[in-house]
Design goal:
2 copies of one chain form a homodimer. Helix content of chain A is about 40%, strand content about 20%. Chain A is built from 14 helices and 17 strands. At the A-B interface, helix 9, helix 10, helix 14, strand 13 and strand 16 of A face helix 9, helix 10, helix 14, strand 13 and strand 16 of B.
Chain lengths: ~425, ~425
C-alpha cells in the first residue's frame, strides 16, 4: 500500500478543524447520531472485515487475549453505536464561559472554551477505540487523525469509512473531521506535522509513549504505565484492608489501575498477611515480598531488585512492609507512576496527609484503585487516563479535549489611554459568566 | 566555572516540590514577604553586582536597548519587591475544589487543584524576571530551576542568593524551591531531566522555543513569536480604525502583542489609508504594502514574499487589502502565530464570526492588540504569554502553574460490588464544591 502524504492529511485535518470549531452543537450531535446509525446499518460488513483481521491474527498465532479484544460481533457493533449516542447526549464542552470581567466601562473580557484543533490518536488492537475516540473528538470540535493497530487494519478501515460517510450526510460538518492512517512510517511522518497537529494522544506501553515524546515537538497527552499502590496503614480496619487489596489486584489485573505493590504498616502486618496471602493464593496470584514480609509468610518468594518499579498487569504482586506513613508516601512517590494510590485507614488525619502528599492523579481513602476510571468517576466517556502533570490528568473526557480563548470587546479603546501619569485606570470587576 | 550536576539539582527540586505542595498559604506568603524584604535590604549589593554585568555589556558593545533592560537601580529593586508582595496578596491557586460528586452513598469524588511540581524557566536579560518567576512558582507551590541570560549573570546570582536566604528563614519552606543554573550546557542537561522536571517554560525567540521542543520530552509551555493582526472591516468606523491601528503598532513596538500586519477591507481602504499612512510616517514607521495598497499609496514599498510571516518587533508594518471577512480570517489563520488579533467593525455579526473563527489565544473587537497582557486582563502577574493550544493559552498567571488531582473517599468499597448483573449502581450526583 502506498504511503499517504501526511502533510496533506494533516493540512486537511487543520482545515476541517477550523470549520468544526464553529459548527453548532445540534449539527455535531446530528453527525454523531448518523455515525451510530451507520455502524448498526453496516454491521454485517463490519463483522466481515473483522473476520479477515481475526484470520490473520490466528495465522500469525497472536496471543489469545489480543485476539479476544480484536473480535467484533453484532453485540459489539451495537455497543459502539451506544457509545457514540452517549457522547451525543453529553453537554457540549465548547463555548462554555469560564470567566467574565469588566476591564473598564465599555471594555469587557471573557474566556470561552474552544476546541484544541487537530488531535493525533494512536492506539492498539481494540476496534471499539475507533468510534469512541472519533466521537469524543467530533463532539469537542476537534479533527482527529487515527492510527490503530496493524492487526485491526481491516476493521478500522471499514469503521472509518462508514463514520466518514455518515459525517458527509450532515451539512456543515467536514468529512475530514475523521481520518485514518495505517503504518508506522505514517506515524513517524505524522509526528513531524507540528504546524497542523496540536496534540498527540498515544495509548500503549510506557516505552511507546516515550518514543512518541522523543520524536515530536507536538504536545503529548501520555497514557503510560500504572504502578498503583495500596497502603494498609497502622490504623486500618483489617476487613476493609483485605477486601480493598484483593479487589485492587483481582477485579481486572490487566488494567492500568490495578494494584502492583501492596505496602503494609509493620504493626498491622501480622493481622492481615495470613488472610491476604490465602486470598491471593486462591486466585493464583504469584506474590513476592520484602525480607520482612517473607519472614512472616515463610513460603513467599523474595522480591528482586526492580520489582518495586514493575507493572505486572497480571496475576503477580509485590508486598513490602513499612514502618510509617511517611515511608509509604516516600515509596509511592519514588516508585509509583503517578496513576492511582489508596490508603486504607480509620485515621482521618493520616488519610488527608496521604492524599495531599502522594503525587498521583488519583488518590483514594478506603476505596479500591480500580475506581479510577472516567465512567466510574461520572465524567462520561474517556479518551484515556493521563499520567501528564499538565493540561489534563487522570481520567480524561471531553473536558481534556478543549482549551480556551480570551475575547475582548471594546468601543475603540487604546492602551495609550491607560498608560503613564493621568492615564485611565482599569476597573477589573468580575462579571457573572453568561450561560 | 564547574558545571553543576543537573541530576542532583533536579532531584533536589523534586524533593522540595513534594514538600512545597503541602506548605500552607500562610507560610508561602511569609516566605514571599521575606523575599521582598531581603531584596530591599540588600539593594546596594544587588546594584553593585549589576554594575559588573553592565560593565561587561559595555565592554562587549551589547546593543543599547539590551543594556537598558539589564540595568538595575534602587527604584528597580523596589519594583521587584513590590512585584513579589503583589504575588503574596493574590489568592492561593492550590487547594481549590473544582468539582465534587457523590459516586454512591458514602463514596465521594473531589477534584482539587495542586502544584505541577518542578518548573524549568529559561529567560533572557531582564534581572526582574528572577523575582517575578520565583515568586509565581513559590506561590503556586512549584519548585523552580531558573536560567537567565549570561549577560545578567552577576545580577541573577545575587538575586537568587538573597531570595534563597529569605526562604530559609521561614520554617517548613524548602530553600531548594528556587535554584539557579547558568550555562547553555546546563540547560541542555536540564532538558534531559524528565524524571524530575514537569514543565519547561522558555521565553525567547521562536527558534529558541523550537530548540527546546526538539530537545526534551518534558512538556513545554511555549512563549514564541507574536504575529498579530488588526483587520479593518468594511463596516469599521474610520476614526476607531485609525486610532486602534496606530496604538496596536506604536504603543510599544517591541512587544509580542504589537501589530505586525494590518488587513484592510478594500471597500474602506480609500477612507483610512491616507490618515493611517500619515500617522505611521509621522512616527517613523516603515510601511510595506500589497500591490493594491501600493496602487492607492504611491510612495509605498512593495511587501516581499515572506513579509506576511514576519515578526518585526520594530517600527515596520505590512498592509494588505482583502475583499471579505472570510479572506481576513483565512489570512490570519494561515500567517498569524495564534497570539492576538483584532477586528474593527460596527457590525456585531462580523465581530462574532471573527472572534469565533480566528484561531488565536486572544481575539478582540474594537480594541488594541496591546491589551493582551496578564496585568491588563486583571489576571495578576504573568509568567508569560503562551502560544500553546494545550494546558494554558494566552497570558498565563498562577492558574497556569497548577494542575489537579482526584480524591476519592470511601468506606471500604470495591469495584467488584459495582460489577455484573445485580451489581450496585453509581449515583453520580453533583455536590456543592467546598470553599
Amino acid at each position: 500500500m502506498a504511503l499517504k502524504n501526511l502533510e496533506e492529511i494533516a493540512r486537511g485535518a487543520k482545515a476541517a478543524s477550523l470549520i468544526l470549531a464553529g459548527v453548532p452543537t445540534e449539527s455535531k450531535n446530528k453527525a454523531l447520531v448518523a455515525m451510530a446509525d451507520a455502524l448498526e446499518a453496516h454491521s454485517a460488513e463490519i463483522i466481515k472485515a473483522n473476520q479477515q483481521d481475526l484470520e490473520f491474527a490466528r495465522r500469525e498465532n497472536l496471543p489469545g487475549p489480543l485476539v479476544a479484544r480484536l473480535a467484533v460481533d453484532e453485540e459489539k457493533v451495537r455497543g459502539m453505536a451506544r457509545g457514540i449516542r452517549s457522547v451525543a447526549a453529553l453537554p457540549d464542552p465548547v463555548g462554555q464561559h469560564q470567566l467574565a470581567m469588566e476591564l473598564d466601562e465599555g471594555l469587557t473580557l471573557t474566556r470561552v472554551s474552544c476546541p484544541i484543533g487537530v488531535i493525533g490518536a494512536i492506539f492498539e488492537s481494540r476496534p471499539d477505540a475507533v468510534p469512541q475516540i472519533a466521537s469524543l473528538c467530533l463532539k469537542s470540535g476537534n479533527a482527529v487523525i487515527l492510527k490503530g493497530g496493524a492487526e485491526a487494519q481491516n476493521s478500522n478501515r471499514i469503521l472509518v469509512e462508514k463514520l466518514r460517510e455518515a459525517i458527509g450526510t450532515v451539512e456543515g460538518v467536514p468529512q475530514d473531521a475523521v481520518q485514518l492512517i495505517e503504518t508506522r512510517e505514517e506515524v513517524s511522518e505524522m509526528l513531524k506535522q507540528d504546524r497542523f497537529i496540536n496534540l498527540v494522544v498515544p495509548r500503549g506501553s510506557n516505552a511507546f509513549v516515550r518514543y512518541v515524546q522523543d520524536n515530536t515537538r507536538i504536545p503529548v497527552l501520555g497514557h503510560s504505565e500504572g504502578i498503583c499502590h495500596v497502603f494498609l496503614d497502622a490504623d486500618s480496619d483489617p476487613a476493609k484492608a483485605v477486601k480493598i487489596a484483593l479487589d485492587s489486584k483481582l477485579q481486572y489485573p490487566a488494567a492500568c489501575n490495578a494494584m502492583e505493590t501492596l505496602l503494609i504498616h509493620s504493626s498491622t502486618a501480622a493481622n492481615v498477611l495470613p488472610d491476604l496471602c490465602a486470598g491471593f493464593r486462591d486466585k493464583g496470584v504469584e506474590v513476592v515480598g520484602c525480607v520482612r514480609t517473607c519472614s512472616l509468610v515463610p513460603d513467599l518468594k523474595r522480591a528482586e531488585e526492580g520489582e518495586w518499579d514493575s507493572e505486572y498487569n497480571d496475576l503477580k504482586l509485590s508486598i513490602r512492609l513499612v514502618d510509617s506513613l511517611e515511608e509509604a508516601i516516600e515509596h509511592i512517590n519514588r516508585h509509583g507512576s503517578g496513576h492511582t494510590d489508596t490508603i486504607v485507614t480509620e485515621n482521618a488525619a493520616s488519610a488527608e496527609r496521604f492524599m495531599n502528599e502522594v503525587d498521583s492523579s488519583s488518590v483514594m481513602w478506603n476505596a479500591s484503585t480500580r475506581f479510577a476510571d472516567g465512567f466510574r468517576f461520572g465524567l462520561g466517556a474517556e479518551i484515556g487516563i493521563s499520567t501528564n502533570k499538565t493540561h489534563a490528568r487522570g481520567p480524561v473526557g471531553l473536558e481534556g479535549l478543549v482549551i480556551y480563548k480570551y475575547k475582548v470587546k471594546g468601543g475603540g479603546q487604546t492602551v495609550g489611554e491607560y498608560s503613564g501619569a493621568g492615564g485611565k485606570a482599569f476597573t477589573h470587576r468580575k462579571l457573572p459568566t453568561p450561560e
